[in-house]
Amino acid sequence: MVENTAHINARNLNLWFETKQVLHNVNFPVYDKKITALIGPSGCGKSTLLRCFNRMNDLIPNCHIEGKITLYDQNIYNSKVDITEIRTKVGMVFQQPNPFPKSIFNNVAFGLQLRRMKKSRINEIVEDSLKSVWIWDEVKDRLHHSAFSLSGGQQQRLCIARALANDPDIILLDEPTSALDPQSTAKIEELCLALKDKVTILIVTHNIAQAGRISDYTGFMYLGEMLEFAKTKTLFTVPKDKRAEAYLTGVFG
Amino acid sequence: MKINIRKLSELTGINLLRFFIVFTAVFLISFLYIIFSRGVEVISWEFITKGPIDSMTAGGIYPAIVGTFWLTILSITFALPLGIFTAIYLVSYAKPYWFVRMVRIAVNTLAGIPSIIYGLFGMTIFVQILHMGVSLLAGSLTLGILALPVIINASEEAFRQVPKSFRDASIALGATERQSIMRVILPAALPNILTGTVISIGRVAGETAPILFTAATFYSHNLPSSVMDEVMALPYHIYALMTEGAHPAKQLPIAYGTSLVLLALVLIVSAIAIIIRYKIRKNRKW
Ligand SMILES: Nc1ncnc2c1ncn2[C@@H]1O[C@H](COP(=O)(O)OP(=O)(O)O)[C@@H](O)[C@H]1O
Ligand SMILES: [Mg+2]
């Protein structure tokens, strides 16, 4: 099998909240146009690590980060980068669907309106984005209805569309299905598989089976360390790390 | 015996509570009844569309209604943006530093100051130092400062009720902090801010003391033609009817009529606020 290229890498990443170190020297690649899953027991730092990729941790006072995350040879923690530009290239979808209290259209158009894009172009992109999350047919006649009129699963797909509208290099998903019913979950998983031709995906999941179903690579985290990172198939069949094996077989969760 | 004492005190407590509730209700009803029964006899179409005549012993209160209308509108126009931006400032700091704490203390202190002192302050600053004279403008600014703490507190509360996840979503899409506030947080908070503001209108419209030295005149033949004119106002008109003029007996019913109009206006505005808030709460899904 050909090796894949990774234009996004975490290098020697350490993170502290106040004096408490939450991430310990994390290194791993995020391969282009693949799905990479982060798994591990709750509280091990998966969300925190994910939020390093779009610098969301910057919003938390007393959060201190050392190390690098590179995005096409650019270290996003370089003091010269424009953080808002980074955040358009690195989209994020949260655990709870969090559409704005605006219309369906304005939710998807939000990032584009920020950049004062032309109206006609916005209309095209909104349509494309909604189509790419398979929700266009359901909402095309009520684009100007409130986003809250959608079901939870639809709202989450709307949030994915909203991130995709910015044309990101990568989207980060933090347990995107944990608030959803099994049917909506299946739909989102299917969607991830379809989207990976267009965009790189880094997903945190508490659901081991989900990581097994959709991811190409998996990182196992434990107490803030990346104990093992490998092709999902390899990790799930022959884990090197004892604790990864124990976690995968359900000894602890 | 112990249990009986406890039962007894519980019983006394409940009955005392009932007594106070009944007392309050009786008080409120007789209050409304007196104002209404004594005021209603002078109410007529003329009364709310004509000015006073025969040195306040006849005619209507139209100029006072207009004056109160403009005082209220202008004071809110001035206080609302200032209040909103102060509130944004107060909530924007996750860890308040000394200046934010100072502003907050100032706001709370301002809320507790007697309104006559606002009047004195307004007279000194606006009427005298800034040479506005006794005018609609000076009165509106004074009333605006009076409304400011209410609007700031309502706005701050409204901002705190907006889920943090909206801001996260906005930031994650590449919005700056300022863009997130202007495009997401403020629109989401605005309905509640406006309800708070409408409630403060009741206070502003009914105040006498702040406009006593800054805006009000007890008799004016013409409606205000600019913000630099003196104005009549409903609460001040009641005060004037009761303390000035040569025919107290003829003026008293007019004072009740004016009270009824003022009360009705304030109640209508409050009712609108309650309805708006109810509708918003019902439609809100977060
Ligand atoms: N804002 C914060 N301030 C302080 N500690 C935090 C903060 N957010 C997370 N933590 C801590 O960091 C650790 C990792 O949390 P998190 O990344 O949310 O774990 P996971 O997503 O794997 O469940 C936890 O111990 C948590 O208590
Ligand atoms: Mg988490």
Describe it.
The complex is a heterodimer of chains A (253) and B (286). Chain A has helices at 46-52, 83-89, 104-114, 119-132, 136-139, 152-164, 182-195, 208-214, 232-237, 242-248, and strands at 8-17, 20-30, 35-39, 63-71, 74-75, 90-93, 170-174, 200-204, 217-222, 225-231. With 253 residues, chain A is an alpha/beta fold. In chain A, the strands form two sheets. In chain A, strands 6-7-8-3-9-10 form a six-stranded mixed sheet, sandwiched between helices. A four-stranded antiparallel sheet of chain A has the order 2-1-4-5, with helices on one face. In chain A, helix 3 runs parallel beside helix 6 and helix 6 runs parallel beside helix 7 (182-195). The longest helix of chain A has 14 residues, at 119-132. The two termini of chain A are 33 Å apart. The relative contact order of chain A is 0.18. The model of chain B has no long low-confidence stretch (mean pLDDT 89). In chain B, 76% of the residues lie in helices and 1% in strands. Chain B has one domain: MetI-like fold (Orthogonal Bundle), CATH 1.10.3720.10. A two-stranded antiparallel ribbon of chain B has the order 1-2. Chain B has helices spanning 2-39, 45-49, 62-91, 98-112, 115-129, 136-161, 164-172, 177-206, 209-212, 234-243, 248-283; strands at residues 52-53, 58-59. Chain B is globular and about 70 Å long. Chain B has 286 residues and is mainly α. The chains are: A alpha/beta (253), B mainly alpha (286). The A-B interface holds A 54, 56, 59, 61, 84-85, 87-88, 91-92, 94, 96, 98-102, 110-111, 113-115, 146, 148, 159, 162-163, 166 and B 94-95, 163, 165-166, 168-176, 179, 183-184, 187-188, 284-286. The structure holds adenosine-5'-diphosphate and magnesium ion (MG).
